[in-house]
Predict the 3D structure of the following.
Amino acid sequence: MTVAAIFDCDGVLIDSAHVWRNTEGELCRRAGRPLTEEEQRTIVTMTIGEVGDFLHSRIGLGEDGAHVVRMIDELMMDFYRNRACALPGVERLLRSLQEQGVVMSVVSSSPKPYLLAGLARIGVDDVFREVISVEDLDTSKRDPLIFRHAMDLMGSVPQDTWGFDDSYYAAETMRATGICTVGVYDAREPYELDRLREASHLVTCDYGELDLELLAAGPAAFLAR
């Protein structure tokens, strides 16, 4: 049996919620109009390419969607290379699981250059078997394909795989695939917490409260408690 874990990156490993808000604010400033609450909720589920197309078509930002993506890249890469910080407890969690033989991968909607830069910045890039962006397969975390791909690369099966994510739609996709889901939320901003709870086998805003030995034993041990 291979116990495995799939981690989202932003909001799960890296404390990056504020930088996305700052980037969104800067892009809206350039466009001359803010996003509505509905538009903000909509872009949360999108890939970077989809966000570029959306902001161009909806608020007239940039020459086209690709131009908007270049703006986002410029703002975001500076953050990931130079200012990214791990969420509290992340290194302890990852190192403990690594020492106990859990195979781990990252699956994220962010572009791979962001992920590689950010993981190197916080010093955990050596932990993961694979770092996968949805752009690698031209899909999204609404499609189980990306999670099945990660499990294939790790040599795991759904019933022995954990999935850590802060997005309810990703948790819903993983749970429907048979993965045991851990919903991670920010106590400062419990966005869509009710929906995340519904999609997750357990939820946490504090990695220090997790039983690391139980996680390493695998989802079956957790579900059999």
User: Anything to note?
Assistant: The chain is about 50% helix and 10% strand. The longest strand covers residues 103-108. Residues 130 and 167 are 20 Å apart (CA to CA). The beta strands are 4-7, 103-108, 130-133, 161-165, 180-184, 202-204.
